[in-house]
Each structure stands twice: as structure tokens, then as C-alpha cells.
Amino acid sequence: MSKVVAGKSLRKNYTSISNELIRSSQIDDSTFRLICWMTSHEEGFEINFASIQNALGYGRDKLRKILKNAETLNYLVRRKIRTNGGLFDFEYHIFKDNDSAIAFRESLPQEELTSDLLSGGGSTRGVKTGGGSAASNGPNSKCRRSRRSPTGIGTHSTSCY
């Protein structure tokens, strides 16, 4: 009988992904790809929505659908923050596993939680990996926060954990 055998795993320049994420029948391919791509960067990595769209070839509506799906399946936590100007802003934190996302969500004050990914006013700061404070990006970084996104959904940034 024929069989398929997994090859040796390399440790350098590779990303660990939970079996729960890999084997989930609920997550679609695009959401899986976004989570894997974002979490392949260092914890605290930030990127704006337009850069994600360019890197992964997603349109605005597709990215919105993917983010909503990731939030529904507990791989993304949307955090509502208030800017220095008094406006509301949002950070999207992406995680490799549900437990980390749920723990991060539970650690947030109630006023920073939001239940609807696509509603609300203000702008968004993009996506981040993980739940800690975002690492600062140097002047040569391609992953700086944008003031206004050409996607039409505010200013965005992204982080991954």
C-alpha cells in the first residue's frame, strides 16, 4: 500500500504552526494564509492593510472578509484604542492559536473590546502579531503605520504573534 511520509523539519527560517490551525475544517485557505504569513514575522510586527493586500494579492473586500473570519474563529482580536486626538482607533492582533488569542482578549479592559469587526468609527492602526506592545519600526522599515489607507477603510496597521 502506498503512503505519504513527512520530511525532516528545518528549524532556521521556519515558522511553527499549531496543528489545530492546520487541521481546522472551519478556516478557509485565505484566512489560513494570512495567519501563517503574519505570524511568520517577529512578534510585534506591524503592517498596514494596503501592504498586506499588495503582499498577498487580496482586494479590500477580501481582506475584510478574511479578518472577520479570523476574528470569528478566535485567531484575531480587535482592540479599540483612543488616539491622542481623542478619536477611536483599532488594532488587529493575529495569533497562531486560539488559546493565545482568547488569553489576550481576556487580558484587555472591557472598554478596549469590540464585537463587530467591520463596524465602528474612527480609523484603524492595522494588524499586529501577538498581544504584546508592538516593536518600533526603524526609519528603513517598510512596515510603518500609514496615516490614510488607499483601501478606503481608514488608516491601518497590522501585528502578528
Automatic annotation (TrEMBL):
Polar residues bias locations: 152-161
Region (Disordered): 114-161
Keyword terms: Plasmid
Source organism, top-level taxon: Bacteria
Biased composition range(s): Gly residues: 119-133
UniProt-recorded name of the protein: Uncharacterized protein
Lineage: Bacteria, Bacillati, Cyanobacteriota, Cyanophyceae, Nostocales
